[in-house]
Design brief:
The protein is an alpha+beta fold and 69 residues long. It is built from four helices and two strands. The protein is 41% helix and 10% strand. Strands 1-2 form a two-stranded antiparallel ribbon.
Amino acid sequence: VRVEQGQVVRTLQSLVYPEADIPPFISGLTGIQPADVVGQPRFAAIADELAEILDGVVFVAHNVRFDYG
């Protein structure tokens, strides 16, 4: 979600096909099952749009140290 002057101006919500197996531990942690990502875009397919949304903003995330890796 991109917010400018208190208003939501862009959103992007998508599962991403990870191009690798999802370990059972991660499925248990996130609730995302391997079947959930079948047919979802690869990261490369959404990378440009995501970069546009994030361009010039302060990135805020919950538990970012976990997700950033």
